[in-house]
Amino acid sequence: MVRLKDSRPATNHGGSREPVRTVVVDDHVFMRELIGARLSREPSRFKVLAEVGDAASAVAACRKLSPDLLILDINLPDQSGIDAVPELKRVSPSTSILLCTAFATDDRIAEAMRSGAEGFVEKTNTWDDFIDAVNSVSGGQRYFRSSSPKVPMVAKTADRQVPSTPKIRLSSREREVLGLIAEGSTSKEIATKLGISVQTIETHRSNLMTKLRVKNMAGMVLYAARNGLVRLGGD
Predict the structure, then answer these.
(1) Residue 97 lies in a domain
(2) Which domain holds residue 91?
(3) Which of 16, 21, 76, 97 is the most exposed place for a label (fewest CB within 10 A)?
(4) In a domain, 167, yes or no
(5) Are 79 and 107 in contact (CB under 8 A)?
């Protein structure tokens, strides 16, 4: 059930910026009420419109309220928050989405980056980090941060653009393979698509990780996105 709060637009006194109209989605009542209460402590900056506990209710809230910001837990009882992003964007295109989870993995971070959400933050971070993420995404920035030492990124960029990195010389085949990896294709699928062996793809994958100085898929996805080899949803 959607738990609605006062959804009347805030009055803009003296030309000041109106509060960010926010919906909080988390399957734990304690957590969503805690986030809602924390944001509500700053009524001039945030206006919590609803607190809901599943993806279906999030879609309903976005369709009804068109919030500025959706704080979306990934682990929901009816659907992954990541999988729900396309439908949420369809019903409320102007809503910025900040994904969050207490169980971050490298693959999950990569999926979050490709989902079309504007940001990702771990619940295990400090409140200051969480509010920093909220402020960044609600202010029109992209924010993807992980505490994992294996993920070579702290991406917090203005105007929803992915930051540039120093160019690394890749062959045309390596760029092709990297783009397909970043899109989520398996080595077998890439081999079939390019008409070469799986072993050759694995060799390319190993060489790419060495050249890019990354240790996982998340790092390759980030490089591919930064260099235009794959499009992040919503960009």
Answers:
(1) yes
(2) 3-160
(3) 16
(4) no
(5) no
Query: Backbone dihedral region of 51: left (phi > 0), alpha (psi from -120 to 50 degrees) or beta?
Result: beta
Once rounded to an integer, what is the mean pLDDT over residues 2-10?
A: 40
How many other CB atoms are found less than 10 A from the CB of residue 22?
28
**Concatenated DSSP letters for 188-222?**
HHHHHHHTS-HHHHHHHHHHHHHHHT--SHHHHHH
Domain boundary among 129, 160, 191: 160
Let me know whether 134 and 177 are in one domain: no
From 118, 135, 160, give the residue that closes a domain. 160
If phi over 0 gives left and psi between -120 and 50 gives alpha, with beta otherwise, what is residue 22?
A: beta
Q: Mark whether 152 and 217 lie in a shared domain.
A: no
With H, G, I as helix, E, B as strand and everything else as coil, classify residue 39.
helix
Summary mean pLDDT of the chain: 78
Greatest CA separation for the chain:
66
Residue 142: partners with Cβ closer than 8 Å, 6 or more residues away: 118, 119, 136, 155, 156, 157, 160, 161, 162
- Give me the pLDDT at residue 52, please: 96
What is this structure's pTM?
0.60
The domain total for the chain is 2
More confident residue, 171 or 73: 73
pLDDT at 235: 43
Number of neighbours of residue 199 by Cβ within 10 angstroms: 10
Instruction: Output the DSSP codes for 157-173.
Output: EGGG-PPP-------HH
The answer to whether position 127 is within a domain reads yes
Please write the tens of the pLDDT for every residue from 131-156.
888 988 888 888 877 655 444 444 44
Is residue 28's pLDDT more than 50? yes
